[in-house]
Amino acid sequence: MREKSIEAKLVKAVKSMGGLAPKFISPGLDGMPDRIVLLPHGRLAFVEVKANGQKLRPLQVRRKGQLEALGFSVYCLDDAGQIGGILDEI
User: Fold this and answer.
1) Is 9 helix (H, G, I), strand (E, B) or coil?
2) Strands (DSSP E) along 1-90, which ranges?
3) Cα-to-chain-centroid distance, residue 74
4) Strand pairing partners for 74?
5) Phi, psi for residue 73 in degrees, rounded to 5
6) Strands 43-49 and 73-77: what pairing?
7) What mean pLDDT value characterizes the chain?
8) Which of 9, 13, 21, 90 sits 20 to 30 Å CA-CA off 41?
9) Is 30 helix (H, G, I), strand (E, B) or coil?
10) Opening angle at CA 19, ends 38 and 59, nearest 5
């Protein structure tokens, strides 16, 4: 499945839970995850969306580690079937 299709399914699922999943753009800070997921009751996580079977690039791995060191959850989503599990964790 293409990245764009997986990303659209993520946004729809988050919206159905009463949350938001805006595109996360951070000028001057490359490698940040694609989406920030904001769910009711102050739950927040970052999600990098990839096409099926794709992996994080080295810079993205480094950014994931930086965000996790600050206490944030960061997920790599490469299959629409993972969406429910990720949202349950958040």
Assistant:
1) helix
2) 35-39, 43-49, 73-77
3) 7
4) 46
5) -90, 135
6) parallel
7) 96
8) 9
9) coil
10) 35
Q: 1: pLDDT confidence band, cut at 50, 70 and 90?
A: confident
Q: What is the pLDDT of residues 14-50, one digit of tens each?
A: 999 999 999 999 999 999 999 999 999 999 999 999 9
Q: Which residue has the tokens 């969306």?
A: 49
Tokens of 61: 């791995």
Contact criterion met (CB below 8 Å) for 38 and 44: yes
Cβ 10 vs Cβ 35: under 8 Å: yes
Instruction: Name the residue with tokens 């960061």.
Output: 74
- Residues pairing with 38 in the sheet: 20, 44
Which two tokens mark 66? 């930086």
Distance of CA 53 to the CA centre of its chain: 16
Please count the other Cβ atoms lying within 10 Å of the Cβ belonging to residue 69: 8
